[in-house]
Design goal:
The chain is an alpha/beta fold and about 325 residues long. It has a single domain (about 20-305), classed as Divalent-metal-dependent TIM barrel enzymes (TIM Barrel), CATH 3.20.20.150. It contains 10 helices and 8 strands. The protein has helices at about 30-40, 50-55, 55-65, 130-150, 170-185, 205-215, 225-230, 235-240, 270-280, 295-305, and strands at about 20-25, 40-45, 115, 155-160, 190-195, 220-225, 245-250, 285-290. An 8-stranded parallel beta barrel has the order 1-2-3-4-5-6-7-8, surrounded by 4 helices. Helix 9 links the parallel strand 7 (about 245-250) and strand 8. The longest helix has 21 residues, at about 130-150.
Length: about 325
C-alpha cells in the first residue's frame, strides 16, 4: 500500500475541472494524508453523531484545536459558550455566540472545501409525531451551528422518507413545513442545505419539496449508490428531473441490492458518463467519494484521473 506523506502531490493535470472531496470514513491520519496528497476537500461526519452533539461546546473547541488540519495557533481558537440541547430548551441547543468562525489558513481542505454530513439515525424531519420532528430539528440545528462555526460550505441531511411508512403527499407537506421553518430561522445566511435521497423511490417528491420550500440555500444531494439499490428509475432520469437543483453528489457503488459504499470500477463507463451528465446539468455541484475502504478509495481516485474526469493536484484550486 502506498504511503501518502505531506507534500506528496499528483502531478497529472487535465482541462476538465471537478470539485472533489472525500468522506471522513477512514482514520484521521489517513484521511489527512489522502487529502493533502490528492488536494481533496472533506465531508466531515463527526457532527452527525448524537453523542458528539451532546457535548457540542467541547467538541467544537476540540475540532478547532486538533481537527484534521492538526493543531492551530492559539490565536486561531475562539471558544464559544454553547448551551446543551434539550427538548424543553427549544431547538437551538447550539452556538449562542457572536464570535466569528475561526481562521481557516493552512487547513488541508481549504481548496477543496468543507461540508458536513448531518445526523440521521432515528431522525425523521417529516414525522407524524410532533415530538419526533422536534428532536430532528434540535439535532439538525446543532449540526448547522457547528458547521457555521467551523466554516463549512454546506450540510447534507437525509430526506427521512421510508416507503411503506410515509404516504407521499402528506410526507411532502410535512417536509416542506419542516424545511421552510428551519431555513427561515437561518435568515439566508450560512451553509447550504442539501437534501439527500436514501430509500426514496423516485426524484419527483424531492423536487416538489425543493420547489415548494423555494430557498436559495436548499438543494438536492444526489446519492448515486442509494438510488442504484433503492430506485427503479435510472440515474439519468434522476439527473434529468432534478437538473440544476443538484448542489451536491455522493459517489459510491454497490451490487444493486445493498448499500455497500464500494469504489468505482474502471470498466464502469456508465458511472463515469453520469459524472459528465451531472456536471452539465448542475455545473456548480460538488462531488464526494463516500467510500469506506482505503484501497477502493485510492483506486477510484486513480480511475477518475485516468478517465480525465478529475485531474488531481490543482483541480480544486
Amino acid at each position: 500500500m502506498k504511503e501518502y506523506k505531506n507534500g506528496d502531490k499528483i502531478t497529472d493535470r487535465r482541462e476538465k475541472r471537478m470539485k472533489l472531496s472525500i468522506s471522513h470514513l477512514l482514520s484521521d491520519q489517513r484521511t489527512r494524508e489522502l487529502m493533502q496528497a490528492y488536494d481533496l476537500g472533506l465531508e466531515e461526519i463527526r457532527f452527525g453523531v448524537g453523542s458528539v452533539l451532546d457535548r457540542l461546546s467541547e467538541e467544537i473547541a476540540l475540532y478547532e484545536k486538533e481537527g484534521l488540519w492538526g493543531k492551530t495557533q492559539a490565536g486561531d481558537i475562539k471558544k464559544a459558550a454553547l448551551p446543551a440541547a434539550s427538548l424543553e430548551g427549544g431547538e437551538r441547543g447550539a452556538c449562542e455566540t457572536e464570535e466569528k468562525p475561526t481562521n481557516r489558513k493552512n487547513r488541508p481542505w481549504q481548496k477543496g472545501g468543507l461540508t458536513f454530513h448531518g445526523p440521521f439515525l432515528d431522525l425523521y424531519p417529516a414525522s407524524f409525531d410532533s415530538l419526533a420532528a422536534k428532536t430532528a430539528r434540535i439535532r439538525f440545528s446543532q449540526c448547522y451551528e457547528a458547521a457555521l462555526r467551523l466554516g463549512a460550505e454546506g450540510i447534507v441531511f437525509h430526506t427521512g422518507f421510508v416507503p411503506g411508512i410515509h404516504q407521499r403527499d402528506s410526507w411532502i407537506q410535512r417536509s416542506c413545513r419542516f424545511w421552510q421553518d428551519f431555513l427561515e430561522e437561518r435568515e439566508g445566511k450560512g451553509p447550504a442545505v442539501y437534501l439527500e435521497n436514501v430509500q426514496d423511490p423516485d426524484p419527483a417528491a424531492i423536487l416538489e419539496v425543493l420547489e415548494k420550500t423555494d430557498h436559495p440555500l436548499f438543494k438536492a444531494c444526489l446519492d448515486i449508490g442509494h438510488l442504484k439499490c433503492h430506485s427503479s428509475q435510472s440515474p439519468r432520469e434522476w439527473i434529468r428531473i432534478l437538473g440544476g437543483r443538484i448542489g451536491h453528489v455522493h459517489l459510491h457503488d454497490n451490487d444493486g441490492m445493498s448499500d455497500l459504499h464500494l469504489g468505482i470500477k474502471g470498466e464502469d463507463r456508465e458511472l463515469l458518463d453520469l459524472i459528465g451528465q451531472i456536471r452539465t446539468a448542475a455545473p456548480g455541484a460538488g462531488f464526494v467519494l463516500e467510500i469506506g475502504e482505503e484501497e477502493e478509495l485510492v483506486r477510484t481516485l486513480e480511475i477518475l484521473q485516468q478517465a480525465g474526469v478529475w485531474a488531481g493536484e490543482g483541480e480544486n484550486s
